[in-house]
Write a structure and sequence with these properties.
By secondary structure, the protein is an alpha/beta fold. It has helices spanning 4-10, 12-24, 41-53, 67-74, 92-103, 124-135, 155-158, 171-180, 185-194, 198-205, 208-226, 231-242, 246-267, 282-290, 293-311, 316-327, and strands spanning 30-34, 80-83, 112-116, 141-147, 162-165. The chain folds into two domains: 4-165, Rossmann fold (3-Layer(aba) Sandwich); 207-327, Up-down Bundle (Zinc Finger, Delta Prime, domain 3). Strand 3, helix 6 (124-135) and strand 4 form a beta-alpha-beta unit. Helix 11 (208-226) packs across helix 13 (246-267), helix 11 crosses helix 14 (282-290) and helix 13 (246-267) packs across helix 14. GO terms for molecular function: DNA-directed DNA polymerase activity.
């Protein structure tokens, strides 16, 4: 059920701001929702649209069952428009098309809503076109712009929006949510360290590629622990055949970072926080004997540096070659 009361459980402050606007009839012509992936941006935009169009709402809560609510949920309401990047960016043509749509009266009322996902990915021309649109707002037009990277939004656009910051999800709360939805506790610990999106967590936990990725990461650690002289060969014969795209390497480094953090937890007697290793794993014991806490800290720093290089568009194979050579020293 998509309701404000449900959203309030994870984003209480944002819910208070938006529901007060609805109750007082003082809805801003443009909102900028900024927060990490999984913090509820799309869901908030969806419930906001439903609250504006619902035929049977209780106060400000949408019913989720009327014709308007169902069409908004399915993405088929004629007066609710969703825009997202076509390829890597949102083009000027997409914004122009939106402007043409909004030049006409609403199909069923004068109320209109548009939602721009990944608003930070607008091209400069698209952003400038949108700016002109925002400068002449219609009283019954509401814009919802969603972003994980608010720093890339033009200051002139930000200044015309009510900015709402969404807080990061509490990992412990997310773990409980995953377990209540049927995920095993050990899997929930790992997934909550990798994502804060419920659907992503379940998809990842059931993904065969990810299961194999976890195995390869543990094999890399075993190689580093017992046969470091062969780690470069392992990288090319095993790792690079599985981790091919940049996003794959990022996921692999995340798992490697978590794995070595588990070893550090084992050192300090905090096994309850381990995510990748399972309790009583013989490799865990071997690795803890092989590497001191100080050495583990250095290895973790090397992995963080490698992640930074990937984000700076350095060629992934080169990043991994440098990393394993540094780690085996």
């Amino acid at each position: 059920m998509n309701t404000w009361s449900k959203i309030a459980e994870i984003q209480p402050l944002a819910t208070t701001i938006l529901t007060n606007s609805l109750e007082k009839g003082r809805i801003s012509h443009a909102y900028l929702l900024q927060g990490e992936r999984g913090t509820g941006k799309e869901r908030i935009a969806l419930v906001m649209a439903m609250s504006l169009f619902c035929e049977n709402k209780q106060g400000i809560e949408p019913c989720n069952t009327c014709n308007n609510c169902k069409r908004i949920l399915s993405g088929n309401h004629p007066d609710v428009h969703w825009i997202e990047p076509e390829g890597l960016s949102i083009s000027k043509e997409q914004v122009r098309h939106l402007q043409k749509e909004f030049a006409f009266s609403g199909m069923e009322s004068n109320q209109k809503v548009y939602v721009i996902k990944h608003a930070d990915r607008m091209t400069v021309n698209a952003a400038n076109s949108l700016l002109k649109f925002l400068e002449e707002p219609s009283k019954q037009t509401t814009a919802m712009m969603l972003t994980e990277n608010s720093g890339s939004i033009l200051p002139t656009i930000r200044s015309r929006c009510q900015v709402i910051d969404l807080k990061p999800l509490n990992p412990l709360q997310f773990q409980k949510q995953l377990i209540s939805e049927g995920m095993k506790e050990q899997d929930a610990l790992l997934m909550s360290a990798l994502t804060n999106n419920l659907d992503d967590a379940f998809q990842l936990s059931e993904d065969e590629w990810f299961v194999e990725a976890r195995t390869l990461v543990l094999q890399l650690i075993e190689m580093l622990t017992t046969r470091p002289e062969n780690i470069y060969l392992y990288l090319h014969s095993k790792w690079l055949t599985h981790f091919k795209e940049r996003k794959d390497h990022e996921r692999g480094l995340d798992l490697l970072l978590l794995s070595l953090r588990d070893v550090l937890y084992y050192h300090i007697g905090n096994e309850g926080k381990m995510t990748v290793f399972k309790p009583n794993d013989t490799l865990l014991e071997k690795t803890s004997m092989r590497f001191s806490q100080n050495h583990l800290s250095k290895l973790l720093d090397l992995i963080i540096q490698a992640k930074r290089k990937l984000s700076q568009n350095v060629q992934p194979t080169l990043v991994m070659e440098q990393l394993v050579l540094q780690m085996k020293r």
